[in-house]
Amino acid sequence: MDHITAPSALLFPLAETAARLRARGVAVLADGDLVTVVLPREYPHPVNEGETYTTIWADMWRFVDGKADEHWDTALIN
Predict the structure, then answer these.
(1) What are phi and psi of 16, to 5 degrees?
(2) Distance CA 15, CA 8 (A)
(3) Helical H runs in 1-78?
(4) CA 30 → CA 7, 34, 36, 54, 67, distances in Å?
(5) CA-closest candidate to residue 34, choices 62, 13, 5
(6) SS3 28
(7) In the 3-class helix/strand/coil scheme, how is 32-53 assigned residue by residue?
(8) β-pair partners for 26
(9) What is the pLDDT of residue 78?
(10) Sign for the pseudo-dihedral over CA of 2, 15, 41, 31
(11) What is the pLDDT of residues 48-76, one digit of tens each?
């Protein structure tokens, strides 16, 4: 699967909006009230100038009553 559409019932209350959002995805995981989306990201290499490297970016949400209540994501050291 090259692209994923965010699960409209969990992440975006408006299905019309969710249908327009597309990203190259690695995984969408749901467990109880937690949803995690993992996406590939490319960054400049911090040591080798002019090179890039690919890693992942993860976002996690906790939902309460159908709405995102808390959010966490990965961090970078620049």
Answers:
(1) -60, -45
(2) 5
(3) 15-20
(4) 10, 6, 6, 24, 14
(5) 62
(6) strand
(7) CCEEEEEEEEEEECCCCCCCEE
(8) none
(9) 61
(10) negative
(11) 999 999 988 889 999 998 888 999 988 76
